[in-house]
Amino acid sequence: MPIQLDRRSFLAGTAGLIAMHPFSVQAANNQVHLRLMETTDLHVHVFPYDYYADKPRDTVGLARTASIVKDIRAEATNSLLLDNGDFLQGNPMGDYIAYEKGLKEGDTHPVIAAMNAVGFDASTLGNHEFNYGLEFLGKALAGASFPVVCANIAKEVGATPREDKTLLKPYVIMDRTVTDGAGNSHQIKIGLIGFVPPQVMNWDRRHLEGNVQARDILECARAYVPEMKEKGADVIIALSHSGIGEANETEGMENASVPLAAVEGIDAIMTGHSHLVFPSSSYADFAGVDADKGTIHGKPATMGGYWGSHMGLIDLMLERDGNGWRVVGHASEARPISQRNEDRSITALVESQPDVLAAAQADHDGTLAYVRRAVGKTDAPLHSYFALVADDPSVQIVSIAQTWYIEQMLKGTEHEGLPILSAAAPFKAGGRGGPEYYTDVPKGDVAIKNVADLYLYPNTVRAVRVTGQQVKDWLERSAGAFNQVEAGKADQLLLNEEFRSYNFDVIDGVTYEIDLSQPSMFGPKGELLDAATNRIVNLQYNGAALDLDAEFIVATNNYRASGGGDFPGAKGDTIVFEGPDTNRDVIVRYIVEKGTISPRADANWKFTALPGTSVLFDTGPKATDYADSVPGVSIAPAGEGPNGFARFKIDL
Q: Which residues form the 5'-Nucleotidase C-terminal domain (predicted)?
């Protein structure tokens, strides 16, 4: 059984030996120290740059991660650099190459060029590698100076995985010369096998159906790992583009890394897909996982964040065992490229490697021009000045795009045919952000960077399956944004200052009213205040009273669906679809496909009429330009608000 060492003990010395360098380990003459480095979920982030916001960003970028790789190589006599997939798609550079510039035979994709410059030894596929189709994938991989493996995607499926005709090589066995602690050279065979979630067949159905098939990850591992051993692999590393999830195995698991680590013959496991870090406290309570030691079922594992935010590192001490090698010690960590300070500012911990930047510089420049140029048009302005008091065009376009996407994703599933609703909230709506903190995209051209104004966060799309009662309660939670008002009284303050705008979900696909004379069912943080009250009235679907026992699909994001904001029906147990795409990407794709969008608010919700009652609210001063065009509500200026805001009045 391998010795499990913490990081400090490992660097201090393995098997009682003293390190010659503070960042290296001196092994005995029959021992080899092998360092395995991992990147995962790069999503085309070569530069430390946010293309949506059109400004530098110190928390991302392979060019930064490459500096850590350079340091590790300087520390280690023997090392391998591995990528764990999702490198080809995920930011505007990926879309620029796929949709704008194109990739001709012989061209090198910028992320591949950057990976070549860093010197990767191998990679596997992630689910996003299929987003642009198999032909594009083939052209991109042709430029790689390293092998890319994937065991569970087959062009032709045989009786067993070993009889499959796989899309790529299921594994590679590398013959490497390594140096032991005494300076002697040895030959070692290192096996690398890759896996991708089989859910790609749903996520990219239009590209994959009829062309390839996906097998279960565990089924393929149990077939190929013994074969790798038969072919002489001394050490086997699993490149698992699959998250750290349940320990209990189920057929077709998306996040299969825990049972995968238990497969006999696998010595170490690289994980990814979840955009998290391992070892870390995020996995403290997972069965089969030791988040302190960085092991899964006792085997070393790592997950290097996403977008180049971290580099995963596994240290292996290998000892000669007859004609082969065995692992006698290990340690795991994830090294960040930046740190967040107490004042929430970011400090970069490394600089970019110039050769990596140079490899993608021309396409970086092209991407900047691409994101600054229109990708579509809007025939109505997109603004959020009144997003908390009336149906709003900036929220409307998010809901429309989410519905469009989920309709496609649920085709051919057991959920197809259920009514699809869409929940979206305003992110830029003043508040603590100040009087300028609003979405404001004028009528006309829409550039990709404008999408950052529409959707601030890199959330991914989710869908939940809920009852009509849960839809109503979801809206009751949103209605906590408002103070209770007294009927017949003038000029009462409308908005609860403790309520955050990103928790004010509007659900598109139903119509409803909010009765402000009633107390709120929920408090600002989602705490239940009064289960008997009802602010949501006249709730209808297709012109008839909503059936509280009926079932609905609600399109939303990963934060909300997993319990963010504490919404009824969205506590993590109703998720039926976890999309591989960010909500931002979905909005961009929708705009590109439609050409011209018409994001006019359809006034599917409003306040219940209360004669003789008026309310006051504060918003940005620029709201004056749009006050006359808000559907279903009469809004009038009411002077200056505090701290630079403008005050407006609604007659209920």
A: 439-570
